[in-house]
Amino acid sequence: MHYFTNEPNIKSEEKEIIIKFKDENYTFLTDNGVFSKKGLDFGTRTLLESIPFEKINGDVLDFGCGYGPIGIILSKNTSANIDMIDINKRSLNLALKNAKLNNALVNIFESDVYDKVNKKYDFIVTNPPIRVGKEKLYQILFGAKNHLKDNGEIWLVINKDQGAKSLIKDLEKEYTVEVVNKNKGFYIIVAVNN
Asked: Measured at the alpha carbon of residue 34, what is the angle toward residues 113 and 61, in degrees to the nearest 5?
């Protein structure tokens, strides 16, 4: 729960982990108070495995980047310009270190939802913080419309048990929605801004 806010009082215990993705090893530093500190969680892995990297270009936003796996892996596998945002300072510091560790050219900055985002993207990719509650989650997902180019896409992962089906219905009011993958209860959703 701590990773949605700045909790400087959580004891820091940085450690290095190796994430293997598509036969490549990536080195990441993680810490207490950040999401999925033991490795790439199943939802994020399924999201990354579902993205057609050859299609990803232009400007990409990794929303809620945590310690950086989505943005860094996208940076290493595409020619896109990658921005990465989070509200958690510890996550941002780790993401900066991890970008250097993996020689990833990315732009990382702090933002509370979209308050510091001042451009439009071809793609927004996120494993959204479901536990922030529906109101904040919808701010993130529907606020994305203002930061997507025409026909821009938001790629996200949500578990069936966390309301995937009702979220899809709600997204369909504003976006063209497709479920591109389902894996062990995780839905990979693409919502197109048109």
From this structure: 40
Domain extents for the chain? 2-192
CATH of domain 2-192: 3.40.50.150
Q: How far is CA 7 from CA 10, 38, 62, 80, 89, in A?
A: 6, 19, 22, 32, 9
Report the amino acid identity of residue 158: I
User: Which among 130, 33, 18 has a CA at the least distance from the CA of 90?
Assistant: 33
- For the beta carbon of residue 33, count every other beta carbon within 10 angstroms: 23
pLDDT digits (tens), the chain, 194 positions:
344 555 567 889 999 999 999 999 999 999 988 888 888 999 999 999 999 999 999 999 999 999 999 999 999 999 999 999 999 999 999 999 999 999 999 999 999 999 999 999 999 999 998 888 899 999 999 999 999 999 999 999 999 999 999 999 999 999 999 999 999 999 999 999 99
Its pTM stands at 0.94
